[in-house]
Amino acid sequence: MYQAFYRAYRPQTFGDMSGQQHVRRTLQNALLQGKTTHAYLFSGPRGTGKTSAAKIFAKALNCAEAPAAEPCNECASCRGIMDGSDTDVIEFDAASNSRVEEIRDIIEKVRFAPSNSRFKVYIIDEVHMLSNSAFNALLKTLEEPPAHVVFILATTEPHKLPPTIISRCQRFDFKPLSRADLTSRMEQVLEDVGTGYDIQAIRVIARAAAGGMRDALSMLDQAVSFGGDGVALEDAVMVTGSIGEELFQDIARSLAEKDAAGALSILERLVSEGKDVVRLTEDLITFFRDLLVMKAAPGMPDLYELISDPEGVSALVEQFPESRLYAFIDILSETRQDMRFSNHARIYLEAALLRMIQADGQIPSAAGQSDSGSGAGVEELQLKVGRLEQTVLELRQMLKDGVAVRDGAPSSGARQAAPARRAAPKSKNGFNIQEGRIKDILSRATKEDIQAIKSNWAAVLGDMQKSQAALLNDAEPVAASNDAFVLKFKYAIHCGMAAGNPDFMGSFSQLLTGRTGTAYEMVFVPEEDWLRIRESFIREHGLGKTQEKGDRPDDRHPDEMAAEEALGLLGESGALEQDPIVEEAEKLFGKQAVHVHDD
């Protein structure tokens, strides 16, 4: 009966294994030195030699010539393990026997000594498929088995194993096989069966196998059956579903000539032939990677993965600068990621080809617009950005110093000539207090402005998000002019959080403007700093004394009159703060539920 290549050419010694040098050397040294342990864990991708290595290790343990680095494959024990008749080497498929009952059957038989061999070896394949109960049942036996028992666990998904199982095993990680290892093994197989082959066909199969020897030999078996007399490049391309190198070159030429119709027609033909669009995208990335390597390191053909004839592609390479090849790879990589979440992979690849046609060393947007511009335009833009940054810094400094900014910021030269001012004071939590700005608002404060804000205060809080309105639970407006108002916070930390939240500032300002019809500037201040600034304002304007009866209001300076009006507002605010009835109502019903109306 005919046997598939991957079964007929399964390695029978460590020397026959492809790759995995670290695994072979460690196991062979342990065999020679008599330092084998009771449990091993072989993990890695499919087709990398885990089960084969387990069988070879079992033969070496029970070989008549042990201790030896290799099994002899001649003694009764080695032949029994090779043909599956040795009852002391038990292969257990956990994928189809995952219940705890099967594991208990193993545990019951573990204590019996081997009948013909030195060791009883249990090879449990796909061990990650066992149930939690089965793992728990195996745990104690795996940790302290009888001296004549060796467990070899094989899995492709070690992350699904309990840490308690992994910690009781010597772990060996099998790596994907290199293309050189795959190619070498397939050449040996074809020479052994006497079949001719094209080396490019073998490389195509090795690339499609993605590091798995079993996949490579299976596809090679198909290619041999398909070709009949030998394995040609066309046979390998057809069997693996890959694309010929000529088509990649045709797509690249269309991109170089900015021929959108040509590139899309090639894609249409490939899709109609049943080619996988995702696989095509990955192969395009590899092809342009080869072009980039050829351009950067022309003397290293061994690094090429898709290109087999560098001389035939040399003229094509000259048409692409390195920056454009980088852009191609970035666009295709981004497209590959987007395809994961869509059922219309073809549309994504078509859009990617159009973007690649328009790419001139930079990645255009999805709409096909390039971000490239003239050098003069870039310099002009940088100049404007620098000016804006300087203006923003000046405005911030002026606000910290308490200077009102109405008609625009001064020039940088005027700013440098201005006298140095004292740094703005800070509250306990580091919040900058705009004392000068607050006093400026107080000097222009009116009763109408503060009433306009207070009358709409509850409505504004109701319109805000609850998370933002929570910052204003212990805040209230205490003074207002025609373009700004002072908002007092009971706690400095809430004041700092509100001032440092741009979303809150924008939402609050927009809602207040919509309610009052005036775009007020907000100045935040903690309560303790507000009391200090208010007292300082009263002292500076000499408003603590009662006005004499003989004084006529018309004889006073306008600033003094405005300040006295502000003092009246401050007095009202203070009275409200000290009113015991209001305080008691706030304690009973909460500050948000209490509204004081001035009749």
From TrEMBL:
GO terms for biological process: DNA-templated DNA replication. Residues 406-429, 542-564 are annotated as: Disordered. Keywords: ATP-binding, DNA replication, DNA-directed DNA polymerase, Metal-binding, Nucleotide-binding, Nucleotidyltransferase, Transferase, Zinc. The keyword Nucleotide-binding applies. The keyword Oxidoreductase does not apply. Residues 36-177 form the AAA+ ATPase domain. Belongs to the DnaX/STICHEL family. It holds the Pfam family DNAX_ATPase_lid. Residues 408-428 have a biased composition (Low complexity). Its EC number is 2.7.7.7. GO terms for molecular function: ATP binding; DNA binding; DNA-directed DNA polymerase activity; metal ion binding. PANTHER family: PROTEIN STICHEL-LIKE 2, REPLICATION FACTOR C / DNA POLYMERASE III GAMMA-TAU SUBUNIT. It comes from the Bacteria. This is DNA-directed DNA polymerase. It is an enzyme of class 2 (transferase). Residues 542-560 have a biased composition (Basic and acidic residues). It comes from Edaphobacillus lindanitolerans. Signal peptide: none annotated. GO terms for cellular component: DNA polymerase III complex. It catalyses: DNA(n) + a 2'-deoxyribonucleoside 5'-triphosphate = DNA(n+1) + diphosphate. InterPro entries: AAA+_ATPase, ClpA/B, DNA_pol3_clamp-load_cplx_C, DNA_pol_III_gamma-3, DNA_pol_III_sug/sutau_N, DNA_Rep/Repair_Clamp_Loader, HLD_clamp_pol_III_gamma_tau, P-loop_NTPase. CDD domains: AAA (cd00009).
